[in-house]
Input
Amino acid sequence: MTTTAEAPESVELAVTGMTCAACAARIERKLNKLDGVHATVNYATERARVHLPPGVTAADAVEVVRTAGYDARPATGVRDSHAEHTATVRDLRGRLVIAALLAIPLGNLSITLALVPGLRFPGWEWLCVLLAAPVVAYSALPFHRAALRNLRHGGASMDTLVSLGVLASFTWALASLLLGTGEAGYWLGFGATAAGADAIYLDVAAGVTTFLLAGRYFEHRSRRSAVGLLTALADLGAKDAHVLRGAGEGGVEVMVPAAALRAGDLVVVRPGERIPVDGEVVEGDSAVDVSTVTGESVPAEVGPGDQVVGASVNGHGRLVVRAVAVGVNTQLARMRALVERAVERKAAVQRLADRVCAVFVPAVLVLAALTFAGWLGTGHSVRESFGPAVAVLIIACPCALGLATPTALMVGVARGAQLGILVKGPEALESTRTVDTVVLDKTGTVTTGRMTLTGHTTFGAESADQVLRWAGAVESASEHPVGAAIARAAGPGLPPVTEFRALVGAGARGTVDGRAVLVGTAAMVAAEGIEVPGAARTWLSDVDTEAATGVLVAVDGAVEGGCAVRDTVRPSAAAAVARLHGLGLRTVLLTGDRPAVARAVAEEIGVTEVLAEVRPENKAATVRRLQAEGRRVAVVGDGVNDGPALACADLGMAMALGTDVAVEAADVVLVREDLTTVPDAIVLAGRTLRTIRGNLLWAFGYNVAALPVAALGLLNPLIAGAAMSLSSLLVVTNSLRLRGFRASGRGNDKTQE
Output
C-alpha cells in the first residue's frame, strides 16, 4: 500500500484589533510557535498568511490569534479589507470630532486663565475636568481597550504607551485637585519643555488624545487609499456576461454572473462593455482598450482568431468571444493573486524592523521609569520628574517602523500592476539595487516570435508572385511558423492542396493545380534529388547575411524560386535597450539562433554583446557563467526553455503571455508586450526600494533622536504627542508618492499585418 503525503495548506486570515506594528509582531510570533506553522502578518493590510502543516487547521490558527487578544477570520478578498478600513476610518472620525470639539475650548480656556489669572473663577478647574473627561474616557477608548487587552495577555504595544501617558496625565490632574498636591494657581503652561507644564495636565490628556486620533485617522485614510489600489484591481473584472445558449442563428443571449462562465462558452460583448473572459474572437471586429489591464494606451484592433484579455473594454463593434480562461485562471485573476502574494512577503529590512518592534515598547516603558527615577534622584520634585516621563511614553512610535516597508511595498506593487508590471515580492526590489547586466532572450522577447515574409523571388520562367502562390497553398496546411508566415503573405483565395505531407524540420510538399510542389530547405531539396542552381545558392547566402531564413520552392522537380522569412523585432526593443543603457546597465542578447541572425538583431536594437547558438539546456549555465564573472544578472524571457535561466538569475523578468513555466520562475512579470516595461520595472522597483529605505531611515532616526530629547525634559508632552502622530503620517504619505510614478515607455508592439 502507498501513502501520499498531504500538501501543506495556505490560508489567509483577516486580523482585526491590531493598532501598531508591535501587535503584528506578537501575533506572528504566537502563530509561528505552532509546530510546523510558518506565518507572516502584515500590519499595513491587516492580513496574515499562514502555511499549515497536516494536522493543523485554519481554526487552530484563528484560535491562536484570539488567544493573543485579537480576532481573525478567513479573508475573502481585498474588497473586504477596503470595507474594514472604511469602517475604521468612520469610527476614528467620530471620536476625533468629539475630542477636537472638547480639547479646543479646553486649550483656549487653559491658555487664557494661565495668562490672565484675574479671569479665573471658582470651579474653573472642574470645568476643565468636565471638558477633558469625555476625551479621556470615550475618544481615547481605543487606546485604553487595546492596552487592557495587551495587559491581559502579558504584552505591550504603542497603545500601552499612549494609554499610560493619557491616564497618567488625567490622574495626576485629579490628584492635584483632590489632594491639593498641585501648586497654587494651577499653572497650565504651554512652554516647549516639560518644565513649563506644571501640576495640572488636563490639557496634555485631551490634547495628546486629539493629536494621536488625528494622526491615526489620517494614517488609516492613507492606508485605505493604498489598499484601494488593490481593490481597484479586483474591481476591473466584469460582473455579468451575455452568453449565447443554443446553436446556430437560433442561439439566444442569456445574462449570467461572470463567475458562472465556463471554458468554451460563447460570450457576446457589446460596445463599451468589459470582456469577462480571456478568449478568442469568433465573430466581429472592434478596437479593444487594454489600458486597464496592460497599461498600453493604444487600443488593439481585433477580429476573428485574435486573442482578447478579460477586463479590457470593447470599443465600437459587437464581438462574440469563445472563453478560453475564466475565473481564477484569467490573466487579471493571476495578476491580482501575484500582487496580493507580493505585499504579504517581507523584505530583509522589514524583518529587521520587526525585531526592533518586538523589544521597542518594553524598552520605552523601562526608559520612562528610568527617566522618572533619574529626575527624581537628581533633586527634582515629583512634578518636575513627571513631565519628562510622560513625554517619553507619548513620543515613542513603533508604528512608523512597522508601516515603513509594507505601505511602500503595497503602493509600489499595486502601481506597477496598474502599469502592467507585476513585482512578485520584496526580494525583486532588493535585487534591482545591484543588477548591472540585463540578458535579453531573442525569440519571443526581443522579437515577436511570429515570422513574417521579408521577400520572395524567382529563378525560372514563372513570376515571383506565382511562386509565392504555390508555396502559400502548400504551407496553408502546415502548422510550422515559417509555413504560416508564407501562407499569410500569399493571401486569401489560395488553390486547394492535395496529398499534403509535412517534412518535420525541413519543409512540406503537396499537389497544387495538378503540379507537385515542394517547399523546404536547400538540404531537403537536394535530398529529394532536385538540383539547386547557383542563383538559388547565391540568394540563400544573401538572405542569411540579412538574418532571415530562406526556403526554396520546387515545382515538378525544378527549383522555381524562394521565400525569405524573418522573426519580427518588437518596435519597442531599440527604445528599451537605449533606456537600459541610460540607466548604466549592460545588455546581452541570448539566443540559440545562428550568429549572423543574432548579430543582425543586436545591431538593429543597439545591443553590443551577443551570445549565439546557446542551446536551451545551456541558458542557465550561461547566466551562471556571467555571475561568476562578478556580474549581477537580470534575465528577460518568455519560453519554457527560459525557466531555468530566469530561476537562477539575480532578477528574473518574464513576459506574461509567455509560458507558465517562465512566469512562475520569474521575479517580475511584464503584462504588456512592450519591452520598455523592462526599464520601467527596474526604475519602479528601485524607486520603491528607495522609498522603503527612506521610510525606515526616518522611523529609526525619529525614535533614536526623539527619545533622548524627551528624557532630558526638552519636550512638552503635548508637543511629543503631535510629533509621534506626524511621524506615522509622514511614512504613509511618503509611500503614497509612488502612486504618481509614470511609465516613460510608449511602445506599441501589436503586430501589424
Q: What stands out?
A: Residues 47 and 199 are 44 Å apart (CA to CA).
